[in-house]
From TrEMBL, chain A:
It comes from the Bacteria. It comes from Fontibacillus panacisegetis. It is an enzyme of class 1 (oxidoreductase). The keyword ATP-binding applies. Its cofactor is iron-sulfur cluster. Its EC number is 1.18.6.1. This is Nitrogenase iron-iron protein delta chain. The key enzymatic reactions in nitrogen fixation are catalyzed by the nitrogenase complex, which has 2 components: the iron protein (component 2) and a component 1 which is either a molybdenum-iron protein, a vanadium-iron, or an iron-iron protein. It catalyses: N2 + 8 reduced [2Fe-2S]-[ferredoxin] + 16 ATP + 16 H2O = H2 + 8 oxidized [2Fe-2S]-[ferredoxin] + 2 NH4(+) + 16 ADP + 16 phosphate + 6 H(+). One of its GO terms (molecular function) is nitrogenase activity. Keywords: ATP-binding, Iron, Iron-sulfur, Metal-binding, Nitrogen fixation, Nucleotide-binding, Oxidoreductase. Hexamer of two alpha, two beta, and two delta chains.
TrEMBL record, chain B:
Keywords: ATP-binding, Iron, Iron-sulfur, Metal-binding, Nitrogen fixation, Nucleotide-binding, Oxidoreductase. It comes from Fontibacillus panacisegetis. This is Nitrogenase protein alpha chain. Its cofactor is [8Fe-7S] cluster. PANTHER family: NITROGENASE MOLYBDENUM-IRON PROTEIN ALPHA CHAIN. Belongs to the NifD/NifK/NifE/NifN family.
Amino acid sequence: MGEDLLKARVAQLENYIMKKCLWQFHSRAWDREKQNEGILTKTMQILCGEPVEKESPADRCYWVDAVCLADAYKSKFDWISSLNTNEIKRVMQGLKERIDFVTISGSLNEELTVQQY
Amino acid sequence: MPYHKFKCSECIPEREKHAVMKGPGEDLSCALPLGYLNTIPGTISERGCAYCGAKHVIGTPMKDVIHISHGPVGCTYDTWQTKRYISDNDNFQIKNTFATDMKEKHIIFGAEKLLKQNIVEAFKAFPNIKRMTIYQTCASALIGDDINAVAQEVMDEMPEVDIFVCNSPGFAGPSQSGGHHKINIAWINQKVGTVEPKITSDYVINYVGEYNIQGDQEVMQDYFKRMGIQVLSTFTGNGSYDDLRGMHRAHLNVLECARSAEYICNELRVRYGIPRLDIDGFGFEPLSASLRKIGLFFGIEDRAQAIIDEETARWKPELDWYKERLKGKKVCLWPGGSKLWHWANVIHEEMGVEVVSVYTKFGHQGDMEKGIARCEEGALAIDDPNELEGLEAMEKLKPDVIFTGKRPGEVAKKVRVPYLNAHAYHNGPYKGYEGWVRFARDIYNAIYSPIHQLSALDISKDEIPTDKGFATAKMISDVNLSDEVRNSTDLREYTGGYDSVSKLREKTYPYMEKQLADV
């Protein structure tokens, strides 16, 4: 998978999250980091057929968003089923970097660093 | 940054950074207006105050409570009668409003004695109500009345009552949103953990940020109960004061309006380890995904799927009837806060309308992030607009309908743009599958009402056609439809009743009854 194709596929996945999901927009940077890490890691694990930690309430909450996201990706983007595990991980890593940028490091939201809720 | 400068606001240059138009290839890292800042002097804002946000949005939907404002009577009366957060106890909290009616002499000599008299009088007038919330106002805050001390004195003398004090005067923030914040934090600090609730299910949630507008909460609660889920408390629509004191025992916080109530969810997560799951109760696909997530969390996704299948089969043909007739219509989505992101994408996908603008009166930048992310390119996003900006936007964008509050809505009517009440609804509830069809019906009726064509005729100069009969909404809406759509036997108009909520109060729930029997 070339860089251009990778970028295009990451953009499709990002667009779905931005249009359909709410979990990436918690109000503080530290929560967004946890949300992005928790849900996108578990989504990657589901897509790769790997075991997923879901015993604690927090993990279980990340997991339910991940299940729905993985299902949506599989049903909307046929190309996912043609990827091997390494390729899925590469796409999901690119997606994680992009979501982190748009919602945290590149965000213009001035309240992300307010210390209290 | 793709800022949008309104011509009418050229004399207020600070306004420029409060509106953006997302262009091709632009994302949130380059297109986000400022938000949640003090209103700029000279711009006539449409916002409410922090007292209003605390009392009239969050506090007062609690149903079994005497809600009393410690201040001039106008504070409690103005806006109170516009609310539609109904309840299943004969709407006690919207039928009655209370104020201590502070006057000049109380400003000079203090009003604590007056407050105590009013508290006792109110409890005596309504002997079945044993719970009270006292709301500080600008007047009582500025003179420094110690409301907490008075409340404690009454509770010591009347041990059967419990009183919550909300110190959120009108000036305590840039807008009503400051009051949302203050009452969230005050409730968890003062009241959560002071009652041990009875747990009757293996699946227990708090339903947070839901205000039962025209019955929204009762519609969603019906789905939860059909799944066997105990709604321990609702913060705050149709919610009970003592149930909300027991929020700390839920297994999951299901959050609807993150703008007004994410604070208490975040604190419940930090203090009690209860996770927060953000959901959408509006629209078939988002609602289905939300029910499925809650089902997955508890391991009862089959129950969620049964509801999704049943409700979708019942109501989708009716939603699609309206979608065929609403396709391509231009919409300005101008609510107070959360509906800009709850609705922005789903009304486009499920009703076919084009969202040409979003605005928020009191939202924060986080709300605009969600709203802009969910809009298509070219949508004009405005923070804290003034009336002239709204008019200029309507002139530029030429929407077919706007969704907003009743005050800007009446302004829109004057320029012949129909509006729907995004806060209190026209013919809600709008949540749930049936509710979403009711919303589509209201949009259809707003856009295609024959009154718009009739009102455009000026009888002093226009020629009045005498050779044509009255055109009904359907004659106007169906003129460009294909025969296949117009004559479809699969699609149909809304077939629900006038009241879609009251019948829910009589229902029984097999899963809930079985679990209750096992307790």
